[in-house]
């Protein structure tokens, strides 16, 4: 028997309902925020909205406008906003005990056991979990400590286009210069090598071999320029980098290099994990077992903050207090994570995500046939990217911004990605219905046509 309501019952509506955007209440809240909030605030600069409530794959602003959400808090809300089955468990836990540090609770032990069950490859049943701080950046920090502790080396290797967070260690692995400007020096001997992107011929054997050779040289070349890394940190599908899916053989090649050099392979599943790509973890698409995976975002079930790392038990060499964090005992978030996994299982949302992926990509491919600015459609599950260039063939960040604005004005929330900001990133909740997908793609495809050469001719 399925747990919780069906996905059809979770939302405010199937279609968006938008009057004036931004409405007067949103404008007031946006102005109040501008006066007192940090200059670091980013999202309301692009999408002028003040949020009031949300259900499933729909959000409602302060003026009562209802939007379809193809953003999901950057992949946080895999089972949708305010999922009743998840909320019921988190509220019960909150009324019982909320903060437990690392004392055992049923919530903690049950979630760890469940994660061990769904872990990718050889990690299933042979892994341990450590909680630290509440964010993905904190999970990455823990993974850096784990690799250093187990190898005795301090060098770290990441990839061009990578995003792993913005705390000091995570920022060292993040590739974007805009995030690092003014904050150096960061960790010593942090190096970045090419990730096989479309421009490098992603999908082609030659591109894969070139990228793997660059990794291998950092480990084995006597004049590689840096200490041999303690580990390799990789997103199985790059998110911020533009929803880049590597070619077959890339992750296995990294696994082989790590094994040959007594290094750890750490896979960042913070955005791609817990069903996002149609598998529990994106690593499952490539049949590779990492030494550790980092998690956060959807792990809290309903937006509650929690970060964790799951790693092979052979690397559990820490002593008591070897990795800590005050909020490593967020019991409501642990219940939320467990219940979200149960809801995904019960409603077969992995298969659902795979089916909707095909629909989203088919609609975008159809537009691409008549819109020369849409040059690539890629992704796995409900993690889809559409890359644009401008009329001159340069990265089309302005095109994406125009499309995004048209979508917002018509009741669809989407976001961008890519090294040049020229990729639309579609990451709706896994509970998005087929009907909502059709409505949302109608809005998106119309926005693309109106914003590109096709619409201007």
TrEMBL record:
Keywords from the named record: Aminotransferase, Pyridoxal phosphate, Transferase
GO terms for MF: identical protein binding; pyridoxal phosphate binding; transaminase activity
Keyword Transferase applies: yes
Origin superkingdom: Archaea
Entry cofactors: pyridoxal 5'-phosphate
InterPro entries from the UniProt entry: Aminotrans_3 (IPR005814), Aminotrans_3_PPA_site (IPR049704), Class-III_PLP-dep_AT (IPR050103), PyrdxlP-dep_Trfase (IPR015424), PyrdxlP-dep_Trfase_major (IPR015421), PyrdxlP-dep_Trfase_small (IPR015422)
PANTHER family: ACETYLORNITHINE AMINOTRANSFERASE, MITOCHONDRIAL, AMINOTRANSFERASE CLASS III
Membership in a protein family: Belongs to the class-III pyridoxal-phosphate-dependent aminotransferase family.
Name by which UniProt lists this protein: 4-aminobutyrate aminotransferase family protein
Native source organism of the sequence: Natrinema pellirubrum (strain DSM 15624 / CIP 106293 / JCM 10476 / NCIMB 786 / 157)
